[in-house]
Design brief:
- The protein has a 5-stranded antiparallel beta sheet.
- The longest helix is centred in the middle third of the chain and has 85 residues.
- It is of the alpha+beta class.
- It starts with a helix and ends with a strand.
Length: 612
């Protein structure tokens, strides 16, 4: 990092960052306090408005009930009955119509109402008389007393577009008593919500939480809309009388209070969080702009301060770069009498010492190279001994076990089978079965003999003329059944006439087995499993190829595949020695191994050997 950058970072850490941290901490505290105040005001507003809505609504209902008790409706004349309905109609300007119903809820006579725009009452459409009569199931009040009232469901008042509710009042005692049905429009309640909201951000609404609908709102466009799904869910899930919560998408602060005496009605005060917290967020943007300005000033001051210093430092840097290129005779010249001058003198002394040290290092390098060659030779010998010991121990144990466990039983099976064949004529129905047993036993014996031959190899390779095709066939006798059992399609392309190369046959068979094992393992998890073996000759050398359609070898692993103990197999079963042993065997025979691979497509190993 440059000195100029370090200076800026220091000034930033010492001045701007602390101020920014304090500023943002104060802003966060102010935002929390503002949020708390908004929530507190919302709760008070929602609770007070709910009380007012209850008082306003129940005042109308109670007035209707008290007025109904003033008359003996069953004994008055029709004109007096109509006058009583007029009295009920005049109890509240929110009443749009009053209708006389019999005990079964059927309308009697025409409703009492005013045409739209002819008075202070909301208008009423006479065609909606039957709908109004069905708005309250009056059968539930038949056993009630005189003056008992019941609210119906909330619906849209067609002339005004506001919400309305029907109120049924029983006019006498007994089950056959008539009813007066009044339609109350929420115009007064909507005006109450608008006054309470007072032009503040957000909205104040009367909602039916059970139906998930807005009944009246300080924002007229929202009346009779469905509640937002998150808000409706929160209102239904919380039984508290007054509660406050936050909604996401969009972020809203909400307080809700249940309306007393009116089940399902709630007053909801909601405000957009971005609008409510706009002053704090505007202040935060101001702080960010101030920090940016302070940072720009720091950049300018730092540039002026470090310009002269950088000019002198460049001389020192040029001298150091010359030393790094090996120009140890270079000397640094810096004018002045300060720390940079002392640094230049130190560099010059260091150059002299490095020049002398380089001469000594060159001498030591020659000695070290000789020691490294000696240590490398010892390491190679130790590695060869380790690999040979591993091979002899594993293959010898396998061969001895096979000879002990399989050869003796096989000899008994083969001998008894041949005796049985001598006792039977070729036309005997069991003769073919015995012949198959004889052939299978001979094949098993051949496999055990191959294993014994491998286990009895000498430590020092015995190079002689070897038929490449025969080596591949011998190796396949050991692994062909396992290959086919894993669903691998085996293909052999053996040149004719066969190629003869100079190699140790047992060691070369071990190379083929190692390559076959790697190919099978690479194809364990691939869909296409095809294994191809080829032999041939080119440019005076013989070759054999083992090609698979496995997972391939990653580029970063290709340079290490012949290292001892390095393996990329998913199943770690061969301790990473197979390819290293193969490389040593082929190298001892004067040959080489080439690799051609593509990740996800497959791998091909080509073993080149001198022709015999």
């Amino acid at each position: 990092m440059r000195l100029y950058q370090q200076l800026i970072l220091f000034m930033l850490a010492a001045t701007v960052l602390p101020l920014a941290a304090v500023g943002f901490m104060l802003l966060s505290r102010a935002e929390a306090e503002l949020t708390e105040r908004i929530v507190s005001e919302q709760r008070v507003l929602a609770e007070a408005t709910a009380e007012s809505v209850s008082v306003e609504l129940m005042k109308t209902v109670d007035a209707l009930a008290r007025s109904a008790e003033l008359f003996n409706w069953e004994s008055i004349t029709p004109e007096e009955f109509q006058g009583g309905l007029q009295l009920l109609y005049g109890q509240s300007p929110a009443v749009s119509a009053v209708l006389h119903l019999d005990a079964q809820g059927n309308p009697r006579g025409t409703p009492v109402f005013q045409e739209l725009g002819q008075g202070e009452h909301p208008g009423f459409d006479p065609s909606a008389t039957m709908a109004l009569a069905q708005a309250v199931p009056v059968q539930s009040l038949r056993r009630g007393n005189k003056g008992q009232a019941a609210l119906g469901r909330v619906y849209a008042h067609a002339p005004s577009g506001r919400a309305a509710v029907a109120v049924a009042v029983k006019l006498a005692d007994g089950e056959d008593a008539p009813f007066a049905l009044a339609e109350i429009v929420f115009s007064d309640l909507e005006a109450l919500l608008a006054r309470r909201a007072g032009g503040k951000p957000g909205q104040l609404e009367l909602v039916d939480s059970s139906a998930g609908r807005i009944l009246a709102s300080s924002v007229p466009e929202r009346r009779l809309r469905s509640l937002e799904a998150p808000l409706a869910t929160r209102l239904v899930s919380d039984d508290a009388q007054v509660r406050s919560f936050r909604l996401d998408a969009p972020a809203m602060r909400v307080s809700a209070a249940r309306v007393p005496k009116v089940p399902g009605f709630e007053v909801v005060a909601a405000v957009d969080e971005g609008v409510a917290l706009a002053p704090v967020r505007a202040m935060r943007r101001t702080v960010l702009v101030s920090i940016g300005g302070a940072f720009a000033v720091l950049l300018g001051l730092g540039a002026l301060y470090t310009r002269r210093l950088n000019r002198r430092l460049s001389e020192v840097v040029a001298g150091a770069e010359a030393f790094s290129r090996g120009e140890l005779e270079r000397r640094v010249t810096v004018e002045g009498d300060d720390e940079l001058t002392d640094l230049a003198a130190t560099f010059n002394r260091m150059g002299s010492e490095l020049e002398a040290a380089r001469a000594r290092m060159l001498r030591w390098n020659d000695e070290l190279e000789a020691r490294v060659d000696e240590a490398t030779a010892e390491l190679k010998a130790a590695q060869a001994q380790l690999l040979e010991a591993h091979k002899l121990a594993a293959v010898g144990q396998l061969g001895a076990g096979v000879a002990h466990e399989i050869n003796n039983p096989l000899a008994g099976i083969l001998g008894n089978t041949q005796l049985l064949m001598l006792e039977r004529d070729e036309k005997d129905p069991d003769f073919d079965t015995l012949r198959k047993i004889e052939l299978s036993a001979k094949r098993c014996k051949e496999i055990t003999q191959n294993l014994l031959r491998f286990s009895q190899q000498r430590a020092k390779p015995e190079l002689r003329s070897v038929d490449l095709n025969a080596v591949i066939r011998d190796a396949l006798t050991l692994t062909e059944n396992q290959i086919s059992g894993e669903g691998v399609v085996l293909s052999t392309e053996l040149v004719c006439p066969p190629v003869r190369v100079k190699a140790d046959p047992g060691h070369l068979s071990q190379v083929v087995l190692a390559l076959l094992s790697n190919a099978r393992t690479a194809m364990l998890k691939t869909q296409t499993k095809r294994l191809t073996l080829r032999t041939g000759e080119r440019d005076g050398r013989g070759f054999l190829e083992v090609e698979d359609t496995g997972k391939g070898i990653a580029p970063e692993h290709r340079s290490r595949i012949f290292e001892p103990f390095f393996t990329t197999k998913d199943i770690w079963s061969n301790v990473g020695l197979g390819l290293s042993v193969a490389w040593r065997v082929v190298s001892e025979a004067g040959g080489s191994i080439e690799l051609r691979t593509e990740v996800g497509q497959g791998t091909c190993f080509t073993v080149w050997l001198p022709k015999a």
